[in-house]
Amino acid sequence: MSTREIIIDTDPGQDDAVAILLALASPDEIDVLGITAVAGNVPLALTARNARIVCELAGRPDIAVHAGCDRPLGRPLVTAEHVHGETGLNGPVLPDPVMPLQEEHGVDFIIRTLRAQESGTVTLCPLGPLTNIAMALVKAPDIAERIAEIVLMGGAYFEVGNITPTAEFNIYVDPQAADIVFKSGVPITVMPLDVTHKALVTRPRNDAFRALGTRVGTAVAEMTDFFERFDKEKYGSQGAPLHDPCVIAYLIRPDLFMGRHVNVEIETNSELTLGMTVADWWGVTDRAPNAMFMGDIDSDGFFALLTERLARL
Ligand code: RIB
Ligand code: CA
Description:
Distance between the termini: 21 Å
Strand order of the largest sheet: 3-2-1-4-5-6-12-9
Bound molecules: alpha-D-ribofuranose, calcium ion
Radius of gyration: 18 Å
CATH architecture: Alpha-Beta Complex
Largest sheet: 8 strands, mixed
């Protein structure tokens, strides 16, 4: 398997943190060209801080971390401290970052990198609201044809919403940005709640993280101990859903996931269903398919991969 060059766009968030760790633990498959922070789970200053904390936890202070947009394209920012805690990375006690935040805006980094790298070789991996990705596409339309693929965590169909009855958080925070991305013509693979709610950190799985006996394993277990309470209380689930690591695991082991290439459109007008990903799963419209929408995951295979890779850090 050749190494895949990626940019991770993220709003850490404990699950974003695990996704970043998985990517940095997999250098044979993934080359992280840089990380761009976006406002989402917590405000931008914190997501840009948390991204650097995670890079240093992985022993990678060399990674270029850029701050991107601090608010959605056309709405006030909605955050999720009720899920992720005040810092966005509640759970473990981790040192303040020492590595610098890059001067260049995250959107400009995405544009410059896509123009500099060979066309069709860079994959964008958005793990939060799609504001940075949409801004890059609007500011530099020429990059669309240069993007190999966008593999994102967001949306929901059979699982319905987690922030409203119909919308998943990442899409809900910036529906206009999501609409731009899903209409961009770029090949898109979607990891919706339909999949991520099956990637639950049950007690035995979290015990396996802790049993690694490493700083990373312990930190991930402590992040999960904090992060799981929201979903356990709301859904009665068996553990925290590891949403964002599904994106990275797909790059390494696409065979762990099953889905369909369907049309997905974003509700951007109705206050009742704002941010809903309307996936034509049953092909009842003549709208052209524009996304590989995942519906299932081999959860045991996913956690075996994740645990083995985290052990490397
Ligand atoms: O709805 C789950 C998504 O919202 C995840 O990416 C989580 O980190 C939050 O950003
Ligand atoms: Ca996220």
